[in-house]
């Protein structure tokens, strides 16, 4: 809301010494946001001049200029070249003398042009910043002005005024007016406020038929609650808008159109209630306020013919629709250059109805902006009377008795404000007297009760609906800077949960290992869910979005891999081919045959019960957090003396070991199968006997579909399950100071036996002395029987209390071999 300071000073005592920045600071202190300071960007000698004479001089370019002699209040007239032709000898005009700077900036100097030295410039309204239209030179007689030559035109036209722009939040519609912001300035500074609405004495009108016929109210609320009409006859539509009004409207961001229209806009800005004027001679019969019917159309003031919706609230007469209520009037009853009798409308419309209509027709207006935030229900009579008074004063009209007034009696509900509530919410020890005083300052009616106060909000504050909003008002008016800035002390032992700590350790560990985290949207196609969201590629249940952002991806993901493939494709298409990516995110795994969702949504201001929370949780599918990674290209680039090292399964397995260490578990890899992965190059990941994920190379066809060249390795793990298996605490193993004993063992087993199964048997048999076991070779060839393979493991033994002998290490190794032999028929390869 732009507030011209000269206008603000009419209704609140702003010190003459107060700068625009001081005024903005006052508004900020009561909770508004400052935007900017708006000025007419002109300076220097800009004066009134009288055109003494001129000579028309045709030019070779087809243009005719006038060589003018202009009296600017100096000893001698000035010679000025002007290209306009809409002024006459004896006209009073605005002259910018050398040294002046007009908006642009456009500095004025004496310069030679068209064979003359032009000693200044005769200005138009647009060149002075008074409007966007260029209708030639500004003739002061058209503004009803007859000043002496040499008069300061900047002061004469109000161009020395300045406005401050304040950002008004949606809950404070009352502040979209000079009346509202003058009151707020008084709250901020203690300055005396004079309510302009009380300065008007509304005169009743009668005899004009107005009917409200709202057959389809929205949410059970009638579309209009107040509707006042008044009539002014015999106005002179040719009368000019006074310069002070043009200047104020311009600073407020509204273009001057004509006197009658300018008056309605002026009163809307002044009091906050939108006004609409009809040409009374163009109305057919009385007015009916109703909803639109099927097939109706309306041409609005902007020249657009609009197809109406059944929810649109209309202003109609006997001819049909003549306006979109609270949004924009119709062209058929528009005030024009021949209007002499004006019907003035001031109303209060339902906020929801107006907001929906404005958005439906993409037609935001200054009127709808105010109606959808709430207009003072006691304002229409004063607003209509203020327009009548100005049209009589400035337009030469006569107030007529014809009019109407219908509405609902305003009876706000009192709000109970308990003692101690404000102090408990805000954290400031306000005295009871200060609380009552503050609420009375904003215009509320405060009555003491046995346990606090009964507070009735003023009519212009529909945002004050409960004790919470009253507490906010006390804090705002008393001073937000009085609220202490104190950080709460957390209870002992609180912080991140074990699960949160575990997820953070895993993500940090992968980032430290060189992987880049790439969060993504959880939206996916059914085909991608089938391919990557199940082990066999079968179609499993997926959650479909009711209002998908992308029609080609209407489902929530069952796997993180498709998003990593999209990210990889985007990087490869931009020349970044060596990739190590990961994501920690939620997947959505609905159970077959279960219907999810609920029609019961708890109230937002009430803490839900445990039963309600349980019902809400049961209404959503399982949403575990997974961690997934993708490798493509080279893990290390080509260097002098060393070829590039491709990123493959071995690198992915290293990353899985990083995850295992960070999570505090031991992850075992065994050969497996997966629909999207290469057979023979796919591993199943387990913790103990629990499957927690998979790792493998993408099938070439799948990689090609994702436009990814070469081999692509992926892995995905159920991070929530891994952390559950790890428990709440990650224990750090004790490091023995005694040396390790290392031995290798090569075992002959059936070629189909997974190495992981053989490793598990060795670990179980070797016992507590075995510190680590690592597969180092898989040999199948000469010396190994057909259908068999030789697996070599590197074993490391260590004791915490002594140095192991070779015999002890060998005994532990052979114990492991014995279990492997018993369980899998393993034999030591000689």
UniProtKB/TrEMBL annotation:
Its EC number is 6.1.1.20. GO terms for cellular component: phenylalanine-tRNA ligase complex. The keyword Isomerase does not apply. It comes from the Bacteria. The keyword Amino-acid biosynthesis does not apply. Mg(2+) binds at residues 463, 472-473. Residues 410-485 form the B5 domain. InterPro entries: aa-tRNA-synth_II/BPL/LPL, B3/B4_tRNA-bd, DNA-bd_dom_put_sf, Fdx_antiC-bd, Fdx_antiC-bd_sf, NA-bd_OB-fold, Phe-tRNA-ligase_IIc_bsu, Phe-tRNA-ligase_IIc_bsu_bact. One of its GO terms (molecular function) is magnesium ion binding. It is found in: Cytoplasm. Residues 736-829 form the FDX-ACB domain. Residues 40-154 form the TRNA-binding domain. It catalyses: tRNA(Phe) + L-phenylalanine + ATP = L-phenylalanyl-tRNA(Phe) + AMP + diphosphate + H(+). Binds 2 magnesium ions per tetramer. Transmembrane segments: none annotated. Keywords: Aminoacyl-tRNA synthetase, ATP-binding, Cytoplasm, Ligase, Magnesium, Metal-binding, Nucleotide-binding, Protein biosynthesis, RNA-binding, tRNA-binding. Tetramer of two alpha and two beta subunits. Belongs to the phenylalanyl-tRNA synthetase beta subunit family. Type 1 subfamily. HAMAP family: Phe_tRNA_synth_beta1. NCBIfam families: pheT_bact. This is Phenylalanine--tRNA ligase beta subunit. It comes from Microbacterium stercoris. The lineage of its organism: Bacteria, Bacillati, Actinomycetota, Actinomycetes, Micrococcales.
């Amino acid at each position: 809301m732009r507030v011209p300071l000269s206008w603000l000073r009419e209704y609140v005592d702003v010190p003459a010494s107060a700068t625009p920045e001081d005024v903005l600071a006052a508004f900020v202190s009561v909770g508004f946001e400052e935007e900017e300071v708006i000025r007419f960007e002109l300076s220097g000698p800009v004066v009134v001049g009288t055109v003494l004479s001129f000579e028309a001089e045709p030019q070779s370019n087809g243009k005719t200029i006038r060589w003018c002699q202009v009296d600017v209040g100096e000893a001698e007239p000035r010679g000025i070249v002007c290209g306009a032709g809409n002024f006459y000898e004896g006209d009073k005009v605005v002259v910018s003398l050398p040294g002046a700077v007009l908006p642009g900036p456009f500095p004025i100097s004496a310069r030679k042009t068209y064979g003359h030295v032009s000693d200044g410039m005769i200005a138009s309204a647009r060149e002075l910043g008074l409007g966007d239209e260029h209708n030639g030179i500004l003739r002061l007689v058209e503004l009803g002005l007859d000043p002496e030559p040499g008069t300061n035109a900047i002061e004469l036209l109000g161009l020395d005024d300045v406005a401050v722009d304040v950002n008004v939040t949606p809950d404070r519609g009352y502040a979209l007016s000079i009346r509202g912001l003058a009151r707020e300035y008084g709250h901020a500074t203690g300055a005396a406020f004079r309510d302009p609405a009380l300065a008007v004495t509304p005169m009743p009108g009668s005899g004009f038929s107005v009917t409200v016929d709202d057959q389809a109210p929205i949410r059970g609320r009638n579309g209009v609650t107040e509707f006042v009409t008044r009539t002014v006859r015999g106005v002179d539509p040719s009368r000019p808008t006074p310069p002070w009004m043009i200047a104020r409207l311009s600073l407020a961001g509204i273009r001057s159109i004509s006197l009658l229209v300018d008056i309605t806009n002026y009163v809307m800005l002044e009091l906050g209630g939108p006004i609409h004027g009809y040409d009374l001679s163009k109305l057919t019969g009385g007015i009916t306020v109703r909803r639109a019917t099927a097939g109706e159309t309306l041409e609005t003031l902007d020249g657009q013919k609009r197809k109406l919706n059944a929810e649109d609230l209309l202003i109609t007469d006997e001819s049909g629709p003549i306006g979109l209520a609270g949004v924009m009037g119709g062209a058929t009853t528009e005030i024009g250059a021949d209007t002499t009798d004006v019907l003035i409308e001031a109303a209060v419309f339902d906020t929801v109805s107006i907001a929906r209509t404005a958005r439906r027709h993409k037609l935001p207006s200054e009127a709808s902006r105010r109606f959808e935030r709430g207009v003072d229900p006691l304002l229409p009579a004063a607003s209509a009377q203020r327009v009548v008074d100005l049209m009589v004063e400035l337009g030469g009209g006569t107030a007529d008795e014809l009019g109407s007034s219908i509405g609902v009696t305003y009876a706000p509900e009192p709000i109970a404000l308990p003692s101690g509530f404000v102090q408990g919410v805000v954290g400031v020890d306000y005295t009871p007297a200060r609380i009552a005083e503050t609420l009375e300052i904003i215009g509320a009616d405060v009555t003491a009760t046995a346990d606090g106060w009964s507070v009735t909000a003023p009519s212009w504050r529909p945002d004050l609906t409960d004790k919470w909003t009253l507490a906010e008002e006390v804090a705002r008016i008393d001073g937000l800077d009085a609220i202490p800035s104190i950080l709460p002390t957390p209870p002992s032992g609180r912080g991140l949960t074990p699960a949160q700590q575990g997820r953070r350790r895993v993500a940090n560990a992968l980032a430290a290992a060189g992987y880049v985290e790439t969060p993504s949207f959880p939206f996916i196609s059914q085909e991608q869910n089938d391919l990557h969201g199940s082990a066999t590629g079968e179609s499993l249940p997926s959650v479909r979005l009711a209002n998908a952002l992308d029609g080609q991806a209407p489902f929530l993901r069952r796997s993180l891999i498709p998003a990593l493939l999209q990210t990889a494709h985007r990087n490869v298409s931009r020349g970044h081919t060596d990739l190590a990516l990961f994501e920690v995110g939620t997947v959505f795994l609905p159970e077959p045959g279960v219907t999810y969702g609920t029609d019961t949504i708890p109230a937002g201001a009430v803490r839900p019960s445990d039963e309600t929370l349980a019902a809400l949780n049961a209404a959503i599918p399982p949403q575990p957090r997974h961690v997934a990674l993708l490798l493509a290209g080279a893990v290390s680039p080509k260097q002098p003396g060393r070829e590039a090292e491709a990123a493959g399964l071995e690198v992915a397995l290293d990353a899985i070991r990083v995850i295992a260490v960070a999570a505090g578990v031991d992850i075992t890899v065994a050969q497996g199968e997966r629909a999207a992965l290469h057979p023979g190059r796919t591993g199943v990941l387990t913790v103990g006997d629990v499957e927690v994920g998979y790792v493998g190379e993408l099938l070439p066809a799948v990689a090609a579909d994702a436009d990814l060249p070469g081999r692509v390795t992926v892995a995905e793990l159920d991070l929530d399950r891994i952390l559950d298996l790890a428990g709440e605490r990650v224990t750090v193993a004790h490091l023995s100071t005694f040396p390790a004993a290392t031995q290798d063992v090569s075992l002959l087993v059936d070629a189909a036996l997974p190495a992981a199964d053989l490793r598990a048997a060795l670990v179980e048999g070797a016992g507590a002395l075995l510190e680590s076991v690592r597969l180092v070779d898989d040999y199948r060839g000469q010396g190994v029987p057909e259908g068999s393979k030789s697996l070599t493991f590197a074993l490391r033994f260590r004791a915490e209390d002594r140095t192991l002998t070779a015999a002890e290490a060998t005994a532990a190794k052979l114990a492991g071999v014995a279990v492997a032999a018993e369980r899998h028929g393993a034999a030591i390869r000689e």
